[in-house]
Each structure stands twice: as C-alpha cells, then as structure tokens.
Design a protein that fits this description.
This protein is α+β, with helices and mostly antiparallel strands. The protein has two domains: 29-38 and 243-344, Alpha-Beta Plaits (2-Layer Sandwich), CATH 3.30.70.1350; 42-239, Cation efflux protein transmembrane domain (Alpha-lytic protease prodomain-like). It is 57% helix and 8% strand. The protein contains nine helices and four strands. Helix 8 links the parallel strand 3 and strand 4. The longest helix is centred in the middle third of the chain and has 30 residues, at 113-142.
C-alpha cells in the first residue's frame, strides 16, 4: 500500500476457461488487475482537508456568535455555509483515509468509491443550505430586522481572511479529485458569502438600509446552487456506473479494430469508473482463430492502457456466436445468424 492509493498485484494477463459453444470453441477471459495510475497522493489530500477543516471550524464559531450579535442573515448564512464546509472537509478527509484501505473479500474493488459518496453527500449538503438561505432571506425581506453594521463588517472581514487561507491550502491538493473540487467550491461559496456580508455591512453602516443583507444572501444562494450541481452531477454519474465522459465507446471500438490486427470484432463494451481516476472495462473480443487469442488480448490491453488510461479490463474471447446472445430473438430486419456479433465484426 502506497501513500497515494492501495495497489494490488502487478499487471498481469491470465486466461481461464468459460462455457463453450459446443465442442468447437471455449472462451478464455483476460483479467488485468494492475492499478499503477500515478494518482496524486490521497495522504496529502487528507492532511490538507484536516488543516482547512480546522480553519473553517474556528471561524464558523466566530461568525455564528458575530451574526447573532449583529442580527445579520448574511453572516449567519455564511456561518451555516462554513458549518457545511467543516462537515464536507471532515467527510473528505475520512474518505481519503478509507480509499487507502486494501481491498478485501467483501469489497473486491476496495474503498475508492468512498470519495465519490462523500462528494455526493457534500453536494446534497449544499442544496440544503441553499434552501435554508432562500427561505430565511425571503422572511427578512418581508420583515427587515435590525442589523448592527459595524460588528458585522469586522466579523465578515475576519471570515474572508480565514476562507482565503483555507482556499490556498486546498489549491495545493488534487484538483481532479471530486472531494477536493467539492471542498474548493464550498470554500469559494464561503468567500462569496463573506464578500456579500462585507458589502451589506458597508451599505448598512453608510445608509442604514438593512434589506441589502438578505438580498445579497440570495445572490450567494444562486452561486451555491451552481456549485452544488458541479459537485452532484459528476458524482451521480460515477455512482450510476456511467461511461467516463472523456471516453466514447464507439470510438474505442473503432480504434481497437484499427490497431489490433487479428481482432475480428468487439461488442458488449462496458466502461465505468470507481472514482475520477480509476477506469474499468469489460468487453467481448471476436477472433477467427482462438490460437490468436493471447496475442489479441495483450494488444487490446496495451491499447486500452496507452490511449484510454484503462488499467483494469476483463476481456472475453469468442470465435463463434456470442454465448450471451445465444437463444435471443434477432432484431427486426437483422440476420438471425449474425446477431450483435455480425454487426460489429471487422469486414
């Protein structure tokens, strides 16, 4: 186990027998379990997350006390956001620790998904915060409370300094990691909240017009809504086993057919991710002669690693009809003898 990520045994190809299609052919499978991805060290991500958590948590308490004393929704909203930030950073740090645990019999892929789950929860937390700010802001616009501008300004400036310090810490982490991205968006939301609170305090001190406080809080809520979507969308895609957005299965098929000489066809392609970095693939490879199977498998795996950074692939070799398609009715207008295999076979 390295600091960055648990690694399994070195890359290897293996073949095993599967159910045959009569006596003519068997279906060896290749399993590539190498995970040498060169990831950004999650140990460093964890330390940065805990350091940012400490800063955010301390100034969250300061803003809660200051917001209640000054009667400012902008400060209380920012303090609420900082509370969600503190939770988000703690979840991220715990997820980074879990992700480095070795895989076991119950979790054959390890704990890499813990990071994605934490990011999803963080995104939901942002949505809850947005709803609360909007409801509270509307109430304060209808019935403006008294707000003390000077204390509000002092606390908002202190909160801005704290948020900037936390942001600088997180920018030293892995920007491709969903949890780090989620944490950065949380802190950016805090910074915007602090700026809004400073602007509102200046207006209140200068003019005494208190509705500016909830109005600017609504603007911050809109920005947080976009941030929540930027976190929830990719995490939901991964949790739903979606194809990585940078990979086109049709292009992948064309590329393999063009660069693996003895590959006759490819189908049943499934590509998904454990997290933003670990991609996995399963596919059926068609060959005209099973004697060429090991060579086709090695070349296919090499292309998957080189072009698509897919380091874990499980491939099934086939010579005749696909066993998973046997007995299925042919599509309308399709040759029953061809099936899916005939549609994808190299001419």
């Amino acid at each position: 186990m390295e600091d960055g990520r648990t690694t399994s045994k070195p890359d290897q190809d293996c073949a095993c027998a599967a159910g045959g299609l009569g006596a003519a052919a068997s279906h060896p499978h290749g399993h590539d379990h190498g995970h040498a991805h060169g990831h950004f060290p999650s140990g460093r991500n964890e330390r940065l997350s805990w350091a940012a958590f400490a800063i955010i948590f301390v100034f969250m308490v300061v803003e809660i006390v200051g917001g209640l004393y000054a009667g400012s929704l902008a400060l209380i909203a920012d303090a609420g956001h900082m509370a969600s930030d503190a939770l988000a950073l703690a979840l991220a740090a715990v997820a980074f620790r879990l992700a480095r645990r070795p895989r076991d019999e119950q979790r054959s892929y390890g704990y890499a998904r813990a990071e994605v789950l934490a990011a999803f929860v963080n995104g939901l937390g942002l949505l809850v915060l947005v709803v609360w700010i909007v409801i509270e802001a509307i109430e304060r616009i209808i019935t403006p409370p008294a707000v003390k501008g000077a204390p509000m300004l002092v606390v908002a400036v202190a909160g801005l300094v704290a948020n900037l310090a936390a942001l600088l810490l997180l920018h030293r982490g892995d920007h491709d990691n969903l949890n780090i991205r989620a944490a950065i968006w949380h802190v950016i939301g805090d910074i915007l909240g602090s700026v809004a609170a400073i602007a509102a305090a200046i207006v209140i001190v200068a003019t005494g017009w208190t509705p500016i406080d909830p109005i600017l809080s609504l603007l911050v809520a809109l920005l947080l809504l976009r941030a929540a979507w930027n976190v929830l969308s990719p995490s939901m895609h991964i949790l739903m086993e979606g194809t990585p957005p940078e990979i086109d299965p049709a292009e992948l098929e064309r590329h393999l057919l063009a660069h693996v000489p003895k590959l006759a066809g490819i189908h049943h392609i499934h590509v998904w991710s454990l997290n933003r970095g670990d991609r996995l693939l399963t596919a059926h490879l068609e060959v005209r002669d099973l004697a060429h199977g090991p060579e086709v498998m090695r070349q296919t795996k090499a292309e998957l690693k080189r072009r698509y950074a897919i380091h874990h692939s499980t491939l099934q070799l086939e010579q005749q009809e696909c066993v998973d398609r046997a007995g299925e009715p042919a599509s309308e207008g399709q040759d029953p003898a061809a099936g899916e295999d005939g549609a994808n076979r190299r001419k």
